[in-house]
Design brief:
This protein is α/β, with parallel strands linked by helices and 293 residues long. It has 2 domains: 85 residues, Rossmann fold, CATH 3.40.50.10860; 132 residues, 3-Layer(aba) Sandwich (Rossmann fold), CATH 3.40.50.720. 40% of the residues lie in helices and 16% in strands. It has 10 helices and 11 strands. The strands form 3 sheets. The protein has a 6-stranded parallel sheet with strand order 1-11-8-7-5-6. A 3-stranded parallel sheet has the order 3-2-4, with helices on both faces. Helix 2 links the parallel strand 2 and strand 3. The radius of gyration is 19 Å and the shape is globular.
C-alpha cells in the first residue's frame, strides 16, 4: 500500500493565514510588519526564492523592502546597508539572500544583522537561544519540519528520528529542535562520515533526509511504516521537461512511497513551510516591536 502524502502546501497555507490575521491586528494598532529582502547579484535560483518571499509578504498584508544590489557590491557596502536596516525602526526583519558573491564573507554579514531582526534564525545569538531554549527566532526550514510533524499528528515522543545531513542551516538546528521536550525524540545524525548509512536509516521511526544529494535514500533504506520527510531540493537534467531539468528530493520518492507510511513530496512538501515560517517570524518580530512601543 502506498504511503500517505503530506501536503506541505496546505499546512503552509494555514500558517500563512494565521500570520495574515496577526498582521491585520497589528496594522489596526498602527504597526505594519516589514521585511527587508536584500539580493546581491542575479543568481536565478536566488531571484526565484526572493520573488516567492515577496509574493508571500503581499498575500499576508506585510510590507516588503525589496533591495537589489549588483554583484559588484563590496562587503563594506553590504555591511553598511545592514547597519542602516538595523537602525530603521520600521523594519522588523532583515533577510540577506544566500549565497552571496564569493568576495563577500557570509559569516560577517550574518553576524552583522541585529538578532532582534534575524528572522532567518542564522545569527549565532539566535542559534544559542535555540540550543538553550530561550525565546528567539528559529531557523525556518527546521522549524517548518517540526510543524509538519505536529500538524500531521506524527507521534514523536520517544520516537527514533534519523537526520541525514549536518548543515548549519538544516541538519544541526533540526537535530536540536527534535530533542526539545515538546518533540521528545531520540535523534541520530548521519553524515558523509557515517559508515553503512542504510543500517541507521532502517532503524528510524521517522527519517529526515537533508543531505542535498538527489535520491541518496533508496526504498530499501527505509523501515516499513516509517515516516519520511524529504528536505532536499535538487535539480536533475530532464530533456523532456520544459526547463530542461526537474526537481527531485534526497529520497527516491517512487520507491520510498511503497514502504513508508507517510512521505513528503518534492516539490510541495517541506519547501512551502520554509516561507510560511519566515512569515511567522516576521509577524512575531513586529509583535515584539508593538509590545515595546
Amino acid at each position: 500500500m502506498s504511503a500517505g502524502i503530506i501536503d506541505g502546501k496546505a499546512i503552509a497555507l494555514r500558517v500563512r493565514e494565521d500570520a495574515a490575521v496577526r498582521t491585520a491586528a497589528l496594522k489596526a494598532a498602527g504597526v505594519e510588519p516589514c521585511l527587508a529582502v536584500v539580493l546581491v547579484g542575479e543568481d536565478p535560483a536566488s531571484l526565484s526564492y526572493v520573488t516567492g518571499k515577496e509574493k508571500a509578504l503581499a498575500e499576508a498584508g506585510m510590507a516588503g523592502r525589496d533591495i537589489r544590489l549588483p554583484a559588484s557590491t563590496t562587503e563594506t557596502e553590504l555591511l553598511d546597508l545592514v547597519a542602516r536596516l538595523n537602525a530603521d525602526p520600521s523594519v522588523d526583519g532583515i533577510l540577506v539572500q544566500l549565497p552571496l558573491p564569493k568576495h563577500i564573507r557570509e559569516d560577517r554579514v550574518i553576524v552583522a544583522i541585529d538578532p532582534a531582526k534575524d528572522v532567518d534564525g542564522f545569527h549565532p545569538v539566535s542559534i544559542g537561544n535555540m540550543v538553550i531554549g530561550r525565546p528567539g527566532f528559529l531557523p525556518c526550514t527546521p522549524h517548518g519540519v517540526v510543524v509538519l510533524l505536529k500538524e500531521m499528528q506524527v507521534k514523536t515522543d520517544g520516537a527514533h528520528i534519523v537526520v541525514v545531513g549536518r548543515s548549519n542551516i538544516v541538519g544541526k538546528p533540526l537535530a536540536n529542535l527534535l530533542t526539545r521536550r515538546d518533540v521528545n525524540a531520540t535523534v541520530t545524525v548521519c553524515h558523509t562520515g557515517t559508515k553503512d548509512l542504510a543500517e541507521h536509516t532502517r532503524r528510524a521511526d521517522i527519517l529526515i533526509a537533508a543531505a542535498g544529494k538527489p535520491r541518496l535514500v533508496s526504498g530499501d533504506m527505509i523501515r516499513p511504516g516509517a515516516v519520511v520527510i524529504d528536505v532536499g531540493v535538487n535539480r536533475v537534467e530532464d530533456p523532456t521537461a520544459k526547463k530542461g531539468y526537474r526537481l527531485v528530493g534526497d529520497v527516491d520518492f517512487e520507491a520510498a512511497k511503497e514502504t513508508a507510511s507517510l512521505i513528503t513530496p518534492v516539490p510541495g512538501g517541506v519547501g512551502p513551510m520554509t516561507i510560511a515560517m519566515l512569515m511567522r517570524n516576521v509577524v512575531e518580530s513586529a509583535e515584539n516591536r508593538s509590545s515595546r512601543a
